[in-house]
Specification:
The first copy, chain A, is 40% helix and 16% strand. Chain A is of the alpha/beta class and 745 residues long.
C-alpha cells in the first residue's frame, strides 16, 4: 500500500458516523480506494484462477471458490461459501459425424495451439458441448437454418424446406444460443448443431488465434441451452433455492430441459458439412463467411449422425458471499460477478471477477483504516453462471424475502476488456453511472470513460454506422448523460432484476478486446487475455474504479442517488417504440394482404428459384394503448416533481424524514413486478425489463405489450397495457408521496 | 411465318398514308410484329455469333458485322457497314507475379471448364487485360484499397497507409472499373490490379460455374479503363469521327489514356496475394468473401511484379447501320445494341443484339407486307462498345449535325436475361415505357412485364430491402407508372444523350439471370447463356416485343408520346435530393469540426489499431439554389399545362400545326445542353443527366450542382444552378409555346 493512501485516510468518514459522507470525504475515500486498486494484483489472481479448467463440478472450480474465500477474509470481509445442489448434466460421450456423402468424424476437444500454455492442459475439461440439451442418438439429413430464429423458419417455409425429422445446423448469433435448438425442436427437428460462422466472430473480425485474437477454425463455442427465457437456475427447483433438501422435479418433468440432442461445432468442421448441402440456394443474407455457396439442404446429399449421452447427477455449486456490515445493516448494496467458466475462462468471467476482487481489497483497506459504510455491502462471486445463472438464481431464490426486504440495488459485471464503458440497467441510476464515468480515466487515452464512450458514438455516427436520431447519438452529441441500455438476461443480474424487483446495473469495458473470438472456448485463456483482451489488466483496474465508485456513492449516500426523470423518459421512449412497431407491422400486414390478393408473391418469384407466398395472418389492429400513454405522462410529471423537490429540499430533511424517504424509495421498483409474471413465464415478473422470449439475452422492454404485438396476441397487449399502467400509477403515487414528504407536507 | 400474321396484315397501315396509325391499326401491327419474333431465330443467331472470340479487330468481329449486314438486307432494310479507325491497344505481353514472400506466377488465360464448349476455343482471344491502361513494368509492395473509390483512400489515410510508389489491388464493384486505376494513379500508385471478390459476384451469389452460374475461381473480368467520364470514344479523336483521314492526337497527348500498368485478376489468384498482406487490418466493410483476414498491406510482406506491353496500332471497327425510310424521312427513331464482346459475349452483348435482330426481322416483315413507318427507323449494331463506346460515339460524332437535326430518340439495349424489365432514360418517355410494359407478357409467369416489375418491388419492400419512402415503392404500391432510372453511362446511349442532347432509353430484362458471374470473362458463352441466363431466349423474345412496341409507337405516332409532367417531376425529385445532400453534408461537416475541436477522433480511436483524424475541410455552406427551385416550379407548371392541353386538343390539330408542334418538341432536350459542357469534361453537355465523375457508370442528375456540392466546389454549384435554371426556363418557354400552338393561340 502506498503512502498517499495513508495520507488520504485522514479524510475517511468515521466508522460510527450516522450521516453520509460529505463530497470532500467521498472524494478522499475514492482516492484512497483507487490507490488500493492494483492491475498487478488482478494479473496474479487471474493467472492462478485460470490455470486449470474450472467448470461447475471441477476440482479447480472448488479451488477457486476457496481461493476467493481466503482473499475476502484476508481483506477483512465476513465471508462464507454457500453451496447448492444442481442438476447439471456433463457429457459422458459426444459424437458427431458425417455419414453421407462420406464418413467423416467431427467434433472433439480443441487441439493445443502454439503460444497458449493452457491449451495443452485440457485433460480436466469437458469436451465441447452445450448444457441441458436432451441427449439422444439420431441420424438424419441436414438442414441449414441460418441463425435458427423464427423469421429464418418463415423464410425456409417460403423456400419449401421442412425440418421435420432432420438435423438442423444453425449459426451462432442474432438470438441467444438456447433458442436455436428450442425452435428446432418446436419445428420437429430431430437434432441440432450450432456452429461459429467466421463471418460472425472469425477471420473477418481479425486474424485467427494465435496470430491474432479471432476465432480459429477449430474453436468451439460451448454454452447453455437451458430454456432460460422460461426460468433460469436449477431446472429441478424453479422458484426455490436448490438446497440439499429442496423438493425437486424430475428431469423428465423439468420444463426447461430440451428433448433433442444438440452439439456445438467449429467452423472448420461445419465447413465440411455445409459445403455439400443440396436443396435451394440459401438467401443472400444467409451466406456466411465460408468460401462456398450455402444451400438450405434437406435432401439426401448430407446425412449426419449426432449422439450425446450425459451424466445427469446433481453437482454442487459454490457461491462465495462476503459482507461489510453497514451502519444501516438492513440496507444491502449487492455486487456480483461469477467465477465459473466453460474451460479456463480467463476473460469470461475471470477478468471481471478479479476486478471485483480488487474492489473488495480496496474496500477492505478502507475498512481497515476505519471507514464504515452507511449501508451493508454484499460481494458475491457466483458459481454456475455459465450453465444457467445457477449460483445467483439459487441464492436469490433461497434468500428472496430477505433480499426483497433489504436490497437497494444489484450491481453486476462479467467479462471485461480493452475499450469503452458499456453500461446497462435500471434507468433511475443512469445519472449516477454517467457521473462516475466522468470521474474514471481511460487507461490508454487519458480521456474520461464518459468522454470516450461519447467519442465512440460520435465516430460511429461520423462513419454512418449510427443514425442521427438514435438516442445515444443525440446524448453524445449534446454532451449529455448517455442512456443506459435496458437489461435482458445473460448474466447474474437476472434473478435480482426480473424475479425479485431490485434495480440492477451491469457494467464492463470492451469493444477493443478480442475476447469474442475465443468466447466459451478452450482458448479463452490467460495467454489470450494478456495478449489481446486486456494486456496488463489496465481495464480491469478501470472497472474496479468504476464499480467501486458506484458502490461507495450508493453505500455512503444520504439517499441513494436516483433520478426518476431518467426512468420516466426511458419508459416513454419504450412506449413510443411499441407504438411505432405496431404501426409498422400493421403496414406490413396490409402489404402482405394486398400482395396475396394480387398474386404478387408468385409474380415476383423466380420460377427457377421459387419462393412461396407467406401465409395469410390476421392484420395487426390499432392496439388500445391510451391508458398506458396516460400513465407514462403521469409518471413523467411525478418523477420531475420528485426530482426537483429532492434537489431543492434534500438538505433540510430530518433524520426521521430521511429514514422514511429511504424506506419509500428502496423498494419502489418492486411495484413494477407482476405477481402473475409474464405470459408463458411466471418466474419473470418485471413489467418494464425482460429478456425476449425469442431473443433470449436481448431485452424486450414493456414485454407484456411489446411481445404481445410481435406475437399477434392482441388481447394480451391490451390487457397488459392496463396492468402496466396500474403499476406505473402506483409508482407515481409513491413518488408523489415521497415528494410530499420531502416538501414536509 | 404463321398464317395469323398474314391475316393481321389486312390491318396494316397503308404505306402511303401521311397520318398515323389508329389504335386498332397500331394493335394489329403489334400483333403482326409479335408473330414474327422468334426465340428460336435468336438462339440460332446467338450460336453463330458467339462461336468464336469477337473482340474489336478479331476476324469473328468482322464476320459478325458481315453476318448482321446480310440479315438486315435479307429482312428488307437499307443497310451498310460504316468503318472507323481506332487507337485500340491489344496486349503483346501481360505478366503479374508475386515476388515476395515467394515467387508465384499469376494471371494468364482462363482454362477450359467441362460443359462449356467454347472455353477450350480461346486461341483467338486476348488474354485477360484492361484496355487503355498505361503499359509499364513495375515491382512494388501491394496495398489493398477495397473498391478503390475516393472514400476508400480517405479511410486508408486515417489508417496511415500511403499508396505512393506501391501497386494497389482493388476489388471490382461500387464504382466503375476505370476509376480504380485512375484514382490509384492520382494517389501516386505505380500500378493497379483489379480483382473479382467472391462476395461481390462469386460463390455467395450462387454455385460457381459450371455447377451454377456464378463466377468461378479462375474467372476474370476484362474491361475498359479508358477515362470515359472525360470523353468516351476513340482517344485520339475526341469530339470528331475517327474516320481514316481524321486529325488525330498522339497516344502521349490523349487525355483519356492512363499512365500506369493495370491488369484484372481472378479471385483464385488474388487470394494468393491478399492472404499474406501485412499492415493494419482492413476495416470490417472491406473484408470480402475470401476466407482470411484482409489487411491493408503496404509493408514488405507482399511484393508484386506487374508488366504490360501493348500493340498501340489503329484497328478498324465496323458499325452496321440499317434503315427503313419513313414517310417523314427526316425524323429518325434510332435503335442500337453493340455486337463486339470481350471474348465470346453470348450474354454481353449478343443476347441483346439478337433480340434487336428479331425486331429488325419483324419490322422487315411488316415492311414487306406494305407497312411504311411515319418516321425513319435506324437500326445500328455497334462495334467497339466494350473498349470505350467506340462505334456509337464515333458514328454520333461523325454524323452529329444530322443526328441533331433529325433525331427523335435513341433507344438502346445491351445484355438481356431472365427476370424483370429494367428501364432507364429520359423521363418524358416514362409513361410510354410503362404502357408498353403493361402490354408485354412475361414468358415465365404469364403476368405483364409491368406487373412483374411492380411485384418485385413490393416483395423487396416486404422483405425490408426497399424503403417505404422510395419513389419506386410508392409507385409500385399505387399501381402507378414506375419511375425510369436516370441514365449515366456504360452503354451506347451515351453520345446521343450526353453529347448530342437526344432523349434516350435503355431497356433490358434481368435479375434472374446469372450473367454477372461470367461478366466480361471467357465463360460468357453460349453454354452459360442457355443454361443460366435465358434458356430458350424467351426473354430475348420479350425484349424484342418490348422495344418493338416502343419503336412502332414512336415511329407511327402523330406526335411522339411524351409526358413532360413526368420529366418535371423527376427534375424536382433530383433537386430535392441535392438539397438534402447539402444539408446532410453540412451536418457531417459540423460534426467533424466538433470532433476535431474536442479531440474526439483520437479519443475514440483504439490505440492498438489507431485511426487518424480526418483532415479539416471547409464546412458546406447553405448553397443558393432558389433560382433553380423557381425554375423547377415553373417547369412543373408549364409541363402540366402542355400535357393537359395536348390531351384535350390534340385531335383538332391541322397537319400544318402538327408539323410545327412536332418540330418544336423534337429537339426540346437539346435545350438542356450546355455548350461549354460540364466542369472538367466539356464533351458531356447534358445538364440533367450525366455519369458521375467518381461513379463512372452511375448517373449523377443535375451534375453541375450535385457534383459541385459533393466535391466542395461551392461557387461552381451556385453558378451551375443559374445555368441550369436558364436552360429549364428555355424548356418551359418551348412548352408554353407548344401549348399555345395546341390551343390554337
Amino acid at each position: 500500500m502506498k503512502k498517499t493512501t495513508f495520507a488520504a485516510a485522514a479524510f475517511l468518514v468515521a466508522g460510527t458516523a450516522t450521516i453520509a459522507a460529505t463530497p470532500a470525504q467521498q472524494k478522499a475515500n475514492e482516492a484512497a480506494f483507487d490507490a488500493s486498486v492494483s492491475a498487478d494484483d488482478q494479473l496474479g489472481w487471474l493467472k492462478t484462477m485460470s490455470s486449470a479448467p474450472n467448470q461447475v463440478g471441477s476440482p479447480h472450480d472448488r479451488e477457486n471458490a476457496e481461493f476467493l474465500l481466503a482473499r475476502y477474509r484476508e481483506f477483512g470481509w465476513d465471508a462464507h461459501i454457500e453451496t447448492f445442489q444442481i442438476l447439471y448434466p456433463t457429457p459422458i460421450s459426444t459424437l458427431v459425424e458425417m455419414v453421407t456423402p462420406q464418413h467423416v468424424v467431427l467434433g472433439g476437444q480443441e487441439p493445443p495451439v502454439p503460444g497458449d500454455a493452457t491449451s495443452s492442459n485440457t485433460a480436466g475439461a469437458l469436451p465441447p458441448y452445450v448444457a441441458y440439451q436432451g441427449d439422444g442418438d439420431v441420424t438424419a439429413p441436414l438442414v441449414y437454418v441460418n441463425y435458427g430464429m423464427p423469421d429464418d423458419y418463415d423464410a425456409l417455409a417460403r423456400l419449401g424446406v421442412d425440418v421435420k425429422g432432420k438435423i438442423v445446423i444453425a449459426r451462432y448469433g442474432v438470438g441467444w444460443r438456447g433458442l436455436k435448438p428450442k425452435l428446432a425442436q418446436e419445428h420437429g427437428a430431430a437434432g441440432c448443431i450450432i456452429f461459429s460462422d467466421p463471418e460472425d466472430d472469425g477471420y473477418h473480425d481479425g486474424d485467427a488465434y494465435p496470430k491474432g485474437g479471432a476465432r480459429p477454425p477449430q474453436g468451439v463455442q460451448r454454452g447453455s441451452v437451458l430454456d432460460m427465457p422460461i426460468t433460469p437456475g436449477d431446472p429441478l427447483t424453479p422458484g426455490i433455492g436448490a438446497t440439499a433438501d429442496a423438493k425437486r422435479l424430475t428431469r423428465a418433468t423439468a420444463p426447461t430441459i430440451l428433448k433433442i440432442p444438440v452439439l456445438p461445432m467449429s467452423y472448420g468442421d461445419a465447413a465440411k458439412l455445409l459445403a455439400g448441402l443440396d436443396g435451394p440456394i440459401a438467401p443472400r443474407t444467409w451466406q456466411g463467411g465460408l468460401p462456398f455457396t450455402y444451400h438450405a439442404g434437406g435432401g439426401r446429399a448430407v446425412k449426419v449422425h449426432l449422439a450425446v449421452r450425459s451424466d445427469w447427477s446433481l453437482k454442487p455449486i459454490h457461491d462465495v458471499i462476503a459482507m461489510l456490515p453497514g451502519v444501516q445493516a438492513d440496507q444491502w448494496v449487492i455486487r456480483g460477478n461469477h467465477h465459473d467458466a466453460w474451460v479456463f475462462g480467463a476473460n469470461d468471467p475471470l477478468s471481471g471477477n478479479v476486478a471485483m476482487l480488487s474492489e473488495a481489497k480496496a474496500l477492505g483497506n478502507l475498512w481497515k483504516q476505519g471507514w464504515r459504510p452507511q449501508r451493508t455491502i454484499v460481494y458475491a462471486s457466483w458459481d454456475g453462471e455459465e450453465p444457467g445463472l445457477l449460483g445467483s438464481t439459487e441464492w436469490a431464490e433461497a434468500h428472496a424475502d430477505e433480499i426483497r426486504r433489504k436490497g437497494v440495488i444489484y450491481i453486476n459485471s462479467d467479462t471485461n476488456g480493452r475499450g469503452s464503458l458499456d453500461a446497462a440497467g435500471s434507468h433511475d441510476w443512469q445519472h449516477l453511472v454517467n457521473s462516475v464515468a466522468a470521474d474514471v480515466i481511460d487507461p490508454e487515452t487519458g480521456a474520461s470513460a464518459a468522454a470516450r464512450a461519447r467519442a465512440k458514438l460520435l465516430e460511429r455516427a461520423y462513419q454512418g454506422r449510427l443514425a442521427r436520431d438514435d438516442p445515444q447519438y443525440i446524448a453524445a452529441e449534446a454532451g449529455a448523460d448517455l442512456p443506459l441500455a435496458a437489461l435482458g438476461s445473460g448474466s447474474d443480474y437476472t434473478a435480482f432484476l426480473q424475479h425479485l424487483g431490485l434495480p440492477a446495473l451491469n457494467l464492463g469495458y470492451g469493444g477493443e478486446d478480442e475476447s469474442g473470438g475465443v468466447y466459451h472456448s478452450a482458448y479463452d485463456s490467460f495467454d489470450h487475455e494478456t495478449r489481446f483482451d486486456d494486456p496488463g489488466q489496465k481495464y480491469g483496474a478501470a472497472l474496479s474504479k468504476t464499480v467501486g465508485r458506484i458502490v461507495l456513492r450508493i453505500a455512503d449516500s444520504d439517499t441513494p442517488p436516483q433520478r426518476f426523470g431518467d426512468f420516466a423518459a426511458a419508459v416513454g421512449r419504450y412506449l413510443g417504440e411499441i407504438i411505432k412497431l405496431a404501426d409498422s407491422r400493421r403496414e406490413g400486414d396490409r402489404l402482405r394482404e394486398k400482395m396475396i390478393r394480387e398474386d404478387a408473391f408468385r409474380i415476383a418469384s423466380d420460377p427457377l428459384h421459387p419462393m412461396l407466398p407467406p401465409p395469410a395472418v390476421m392484420r395487426t389492429p390499432h392496439v388500445e394503448l391510451a391508458v398506458l400513454e396516460d400513465s407514462v405522462d403521469r409518471l413523467k410529471a411525478s418523477a420531475a416533481g420528485y426530482d426537483a423537490a429532492y434537489a431543492d429540499r434534500s438538505s433540510s430533511l430530518t433524520p426521521a424524514q430521511r429514514a422514511r424517504l429511504n424506506a419509500m424509495l428502496r423498494d419502489i421498483d418492486q411495484l413494477l413486478m407482476n405477481p402473475a409474471g409474464l405470459p408463458f413465464r411466471p418466474w419473470f415478473q418485471n413489467m418494464v425489463y425482460a429478456p425476449g422470449r425469442f431473443t433470449g439475452y436481448g431485452a424486450k422492454t414493456l414485454p407484456g405489450v411489446r411481445e404481445a404485438v410481435e406475437e399477434r396476441r392482441f388481447a394480451d397487449a391490451i390487457a397488459f397495457a392496463k396492468t402496466i399502467a396500474a403499476a406505473l400509477d402506483a409508482y407515481s403515487d409513491r413518488l408523489d408521496a415521497a415528494k410530499a414528504l420531502v416538501e414536509g407536507k
